[in-house]
Design brief:
heterodimer, A: 325 residues, four-stranded antiparallel beta barrel, 9 helices, 10 strands, globular, B: 628 residues, alpha/beta, seven-stranded antiparallel beta sheet
């Protein structure tokens, strides 16, 4: 775990200097500028047309970029919506630390939803398996948050390049009153004209990063100097090798199988989620620059580190229909 | 150079050309998926774990034996994979040193027109695939028309499967000559023919030794080089206002994306709809104020004067303004199973402008296979027509083929909220500007005053035999007895005269109600209380009539009786005829009835008598103060 004060200082610096011209900063790459403008356009549409929007914030690199874009889109105003995090209680400790420091430094409202009932029932990735854990602590908690606050639009950081079923996702993705997604019920999306009309109880998930790739995200973080959770950078961390995946022992709730022990290895993460469900990769890339260099030669997709995608073929699509982001 | 600058320059290298969006048109048989798979594979965008999933899937669902089936990589949804079809638009990404590419991939079957138009709406270039063995097909012409209609100016004619045509130069030239002759009328700016074999990568990313006679670029070279956006910045300044940025009393900015032209502080801009002008004081971004911004940039403008501007307004160059009109001609593509009927009310959304709209005239349909004009009374799913449209409020626009983002609109169903149509505006209609309302000295209020009442429309809707005319008749009799001035419009009577040219198709029913609505409005203008008894089965038309009237004037009475009760009553013997098949499109029988969601009054004639129902109607009139 990284010292809290180091993260906090980095984030405070980011918050304090946002909106100030930075001397000597080279202008943004042309393709990132185009992607940025498209995302900003999308966010402004939502702010203008919905009465109770929210940004679903997952603490990862995509959320960091999405929030950065929102700060830009409404500048000099603050983003006119709160952030909502769904906390499964199994996130890496560094993630929670980063989340709280960021919300405080930027003065943004961070709403946190925890499925207390699931917690009482002892649902967790070790005790219940990844499927049940994700269903109860993530999907159900998200639905509870949507219902509790009555959001009519929710930004998510999903990208079309992540996974096959997402390549066809709309930027404005319609959800029925049960938050269900029906592939045959999606609206055609032409130009940059988005149909935002819904009835009471229905909602729209909005994906402003739809046309970004993983590499675009990293390059943007690099060029814009956006702070990210340190877990993305390689460091010596205690890990257990299990079924070809490297799992980090992030706290004492980790359940070891027979004969397993934690070893210190130089690893980093390409995506962040619940720590027992997120595989690390061996890497020596300890700086952003090195991470991007490594990306350029990467030979596996980022979701290969996500254990939930491998449960069965078409599993993402199934989860989406049930209201998983 | 520090590490950061170093890596950034490596990522962008020699001149970052930004993003090129293109669409691939053709069917799987033409090798479309193979082509996209090839581009992704050769630019190393397919990762090892995706490749191993692909090999696994190829054995399970594949159609090319033991080889890797690239189509499976591209077909996203589980249902599609099992049925071996794709049903939507998928977006793929790859990049080279020079450019980032966004590829819209659309399937080649039934919903093709709608999907391809969706993908083409944001594309700058179309790759039209041809199987070298088959040559130019009907679908080739169809794809070319849609690309043209959606404003794409650059075409790559990809003559694929050259390996199966003996890499024949003569065959290639024959196909190219044929294609150029057939699409000449569409007026593309560039057409670049490339002979290729996607399966083996020939002339896709690498030159083909077997086709050394080809002296043009490979596909990828062409995609990297082509200039498609040059004119966006040189066009007239257009800035649709998305959101008014007002953090405190000292700052009022207008947030939006410039869709055409450039802007500098000091430039004079005009609000298209009101004609008010001001000068640009600042161009605000999170990086600080900038001295110039151009097409494609998302910025916030601050003006030097306080003028009225809201979301949906368009700021434009004062010396080069857009059209502002409520009547215009457009090419409309219909995208929903429920057909478009002239006269029906939809919502039009163009940028941030949203207003009710109807098609006043469907001039002709377009056969996209032959480009012929065909007579049309309605537009079904995937049909294209030339239409005149009329909006409730004037909108600001440019012709689509000049500026796509200010010349396009979508049509939304007012009840289901589905996106049902897309339109490309051609020109404003002259008559819109030459018809002005004639002002009369005796006003509607004066006429009503003389009659000591407030005019209203009592709109009775319900199934045939529900009791509409019976109740309306009692209501009018009682009003007359009390000295009020009334008139009755009734379904059968109107069809003997005013509407005797109309039948009972959905389109004619829409027109029937539209005319009745206009007549009712004239009577309301005369100060009368009008009872209207019409089945009026569609919500959209009842809503249309409601909107013709002023607030509170339209009183919808849902005369509700179960179908079985109506059939048992059958006062005109119509249900018997419908059952016998002698009448078609009979409401409740083989034509739908859309019940009102929030009528002013709901009477169930199975429960209460016609006299009691009439009491309630009159009570409503009295409560709302319409009886003086």
């Amino acid at each position: 775990m990284v010292d809290r004060s180091v993260i906090a200082a980095r984030i405070a610096d980011y918050a304090n200097t946002f909106g100030q011209p930075r001397a000597g900063k080279p202008s943004l790459s042309a393709h990132l500028k185009a992607l940025e403008a498209e995302s900003i356009h999308i966010m402004r549409e939502v702010a203008a047309e919905f009465s109770n929007p929210v940004m679903l914030y997952s603490i990862g690199k995509d959320s960091a970029v999405m929030l950065h874009l929102a700060l830009k889109a409404f500048y000099p105003s603050r983003p006119p919506f709160p952030l909502q995090h769904v906390d499964t209680t199994w996130k890496f400790r560094d993630m929670i630390m980063y989340r709280d420091a960021l919300a405080e430094a930027l003065g943004l409202e961070m709403r946190v939803e925890i499925n207390e009932d699931g917690l009482k029932r002892g649902i967790g990735p070790f005790a219940s398996g990844s499927n049940l854990h994700t269903q109860v602590m993530k999907t159900e908690a998200l639905r509870a948050a949507m219902n509790r606050h009555g959001y009519d639009a929710a930004f998510g950081g999903a990208r079309r390049d992540e996974e096959k079923s997402r390549a066809k996702e709309r930027i404005f993705s319609f959800r029925d009153a049960n938050h269900g997604w029906e592939p045959r019920n999606q609206r055609p999306e032409l130009w940059q004209t988005y149909n935002t009309r819904i009835r009471q109880g229905e909602s729209i998930r909005v994906f402003p990063l739809s046309n970004w790739t993983e590499l675009d995200i990293w390059q943007y973080i690099l060029e814009e100097d956006i702070p990210i959770v340190p877990l993305y950078l390689a460091a010596e961390r205690p890990v257990v090798e299990r079924d070809g995946q490297l799992l980090m022992v992030d706290d004492d709730r980790f359940v070891f199988a027979n004969g397993e022990t934690a070893q210190m290895r130089m690893v980093r993460f390409r995506t962040l989620g619940c720590y027992p469900l997120t595989g690390a990769i061996e890497s020596t890339a300890a700086t952003l620059e090195e991470v991007v260099m490594e990306m350029l030669t990467a030979r596996t997709s980022e979701r290969s580190g996500r254990l939930i995608d491998h449960d069965e073929a078409g599993s993402m699509e199934k989860k989406k229909r049930e209201g998983y982001f | 150079m520090n590490a950061r600058a170093n890596i950034i320059s490596r990522l962008t290298r020699t001149g970052d050309r930004g993003v090129l969006r293109f669409i691939t048109c053709g069917s799987v048989d033409d090798g479309k998926s193979t082509l996209i798979g090839r581009l992704l594979y050769d630019s190393k965008l397919i990762f090892d774990d995706q490749l191993s999933t692909l090999e696994k899937d190829s054995r399970k669902h594949g159609t090319v034996g033991e080889e890797i089936d690239f189509a499976l990589l591209l077909d996203g949804l589980e249902a599609e994979r099992q049925q071996g079809i794709t049903i939507d638009v998928a977006y793929r990404f790859f990049s080279t040193d020079k450019r980032k590419f966004v590829v819209a991939d659309t399937p080649g079957h039934e919903q093709y027109t709608r999907n391809m138009a969706t993908g083409a709406s944001t594309a700058d270039l179309a790759i039209i695939l041809i199987d070298a063995r088959k040559g130019v097909l009907v679908q080739t012409l169809r794809h070319s028309y849609i690309a043209h209609m959606m404003g794409i100016r650059h075409v790559v004619l990809a003559v694929n499967k050259m390996d199966l045509a003996g890499h024949s130069r003569a065959r290639f030239h024959e196909i190219v000559a044929n294609y150029l002759a057939r699409v000449e009328a569409l007026g593309f700016e560039t057409i670049t023919p490339i002979p290729m074999s996607a399966r083996y990568g020939e002339n896709v990313t690498q030159r083909s030794p077997a086709m050394d006679w080809h002296d043009g670029p490979t596909l990828l070279e062409h995609l990297e080089q082509i200039e498609t956006e040059a004119d966006a910045r040189s066009g007239p300044f257009r800035f649709p206002v998305q959101w008014v940025n007002r953090p405190n009393l000292d700052f009022r900015g207008f947030a939006g994306t410039i869709v055409s032209g450039t802007v500098k502080p000091g430039d004079e801009v005009v609000v298209a709809s009101s004609g008010q002008t001001a000068k640009v004081a600042r161009i605000v971004t999170a990086e600080g104020d900038i001295v110039e911004a151009g097409a494609g940039e998302a910025v916030t403008l601050v003006l030097d004067a306080e003028i009225d501007i809201i979301r949906g307004d368009m700021l434009s160059a004062a010396g080069d303004r857009p059209n502002v009109a409520s009547q215009f001609a457009a090419e409309v593509l219909w995208m929903h199973e429920d057909a478009m009927h002239p006269g029906r009310s939809y919502l039009l959304k163009a940028g941030g402008q949203v207003t009710p709209v109807s098609v006043t005239e469907l001039k002709y349909g377009v056969d996209i296979n032959t480009y012929d004009h065909i007579p049309a009374k309605e537009l079904g799913m995937n049909a294209i027509g030339q239409c005149n449209l009329s909006t409730s409020r004037a909108i600001a626009f440019d012709p689509y083929h000049e500026i796509r983002d200010t010349g396009s609109f979508i049509l939304i169903d007012r009840y289901t909220n589905q996106t049902v149509g897309a339109g490309m505006i051609r020109f404003a209609l002259r008559r819109a500007t030459n018809i002005h309302a004639q002002k009369m000295d005796v006003t509607k209020a004066r006429r009503a005053e003389l009659k000591a009442q407030k005019p209203a429309v009592l709109w009775f809707t319900g199934l045939s035999g529900a009791g509409k005319s019976t109740i309306a008749n009692i209501v009018e009799r009682r009003l007359a007895e009390a000295g009020h001035h009334t008139y009755s419009l009734d379904g059968d009577n109107v069809r003997h005269g005013l509407n005797r040219d109309l039948g009972f198709t959905e389109g004619d029913r829409v027109e029937n109600i539209r005319r009745i609505g206009e007549v009712a409005k004239l009577f309301v203008d005369a100060g009368l209380i009008v009872t209207c008894s019409f089945i009026s089965p569609f919500r959209a038309e009842r809503q249309m009539v409601r909107e013709l009237m002023e607030e509170g004037e339209f009183i919808e009475v849902f005369v509700d009786a179960p179908l079985e009760v109506c059939m048992a009553r059958d006062p005109k013997g119509l249900y018997k005829k419908a059952q016998a098949g002698e009448i078609k499109n009979f409401t409740g029988f083989d034509s739908p009835y859309e019940a009102p969601e929030m009528p002013e009054l709901h009477v169930e004639t199975g429960q209460i008598s016609a006299e009691e129902a009439a009491d309630r109607v009159i009570a409503i009139l009295r409560q709302s103060g319409r009886l003086g």
